[in-house]
Design goal:
Layout lengths: L8 E7 L2 E6 L25 H15 L6 E2 L9 E4 L14 E4 L5 E6 L3 E7 L4 E7 L1 H5 L2 H12 L7 E4 L12 H4 L7 E2 L7 E2 L1 H11 L26 H4 L6 E7 L1
Parallel strand pairs: 3-6, 4-5
Antiparallel strand pairs: 1-2, 2-12, 5-8, 6-12, 7-8, 7-9, 10-11
The structure holds zinc ion.
Zinc ion binds next to loops.
Length: 255
């Protein structure tokens, strides 16, 4: 995929003929009034269709993929995965799911996040890709495990799957209550450095994928410079801007 405009799209993962990207806002104020300012294709968190349609068309122009082939679910913090093996697909199948797996070339699959972790999966040898939205609920309930299982069911091999995590909240910023911290393995929780516990969702995801057979060297470490809460002028952050705000779009495509 060759990007042809100045749309704020950045490469996250490259694996043969597969590429994953994430979007940034641009550089905008972090006030409540500005909570939708910047690049946002997510139409179900309060932004106007007028604005999200403009951004979707901009994304289509930049990627050369038509808007109807840019596919993302209506996310609900579930652990459900939609598998797309042909287009056109049943749009209803994308209601209330939080991950997509596909073996279809030339389409974009993506998730919208603002602090939650977008996880891109690629097995370019098998021709199978996946994308998941993992907040703490989805992560604790196995959304990334289910995404990987759906890929394996389609014929992917754990040893050839590459994984990268897009813009999301870093452990320093992710303060939680004990009821949330208790859902995670102690190795992913820091209960002593701050007044309240902090959780590393990235570490939790990495550990669970390794447990399912993905080599550690195939999982890119999370880059703290992509923390949404540390950089809400660059990335939408629900903790900073509110749940009703724009979203980072992280997407993957296979040619
Ligand atoms: Zn941070």
């Amino acid at each position: 995929m060759r990007l042809t405009t100045d749309t704020p799209i950045h490469e996250l993962l490259r694996d043969g003929n597969v590429t994953a990207y994430y979007t940034s806002r641009g550089n905008y104020a972090t006030t409540e009034e500005a909570r939708y300012n910047g690049f946002n294709v997510c139409h179900y968190t309060g932004d106007s269709y007028e604005h999200t349609d403009i951004c979707l068309k901009q994304l289509s122009l930049a990627t050369g993929v038509s808007p109807e082939k840019i596919i993302f679910p209506h996310q609900v913090h579930s652990n459900d995965v939609s598998v797309i093996t042909s287009v056109p697909w049943h749009k209803e199948s994308l209601e209330s799911t939080d991950a997509i797996v596909t073996n279809v070339r030339g389409i974009i699959i993506g998730v919208n996040t603002a602090d939650c972790v977008p996880v891109a999966f690629s097995d370019s040898r098998a021709g199978i890709i996946g994308i998941a939205h993992a907040g703490w609920r989805g992560a604790a309930n196995g959304i990334t495990e289910n995404t990987l299982t759906a890929m394996l069911d389609l014929g992917a091999s754990p040893e050839s799957i590459k994984v990268a995590m897009g813009p999301s909240i870093c452990m320093s910023c992710f303060e939680v209550g004990t009821e949330v911290a208790d859902r995670f393995d102690n190795t992913c929780v820091d209960r002593t450095s701050w007044d309240k516990p902090h959780v590393s969702i990235h570490r939790h995801i990495t550990k669970s994928l390794i447990n399912q057979g993905i080599p550690e060297s195939n999982i890119a470490g999370f880059d703290n410079s992509l923390c949404t809460r540390c950089h809400p002028d660059t990335f939408f952050s629900a903790r900073k801007l509110g749940v009703n705000s724009g979203r980072v779009f992280t997407f993957i495509s296979m040619q």
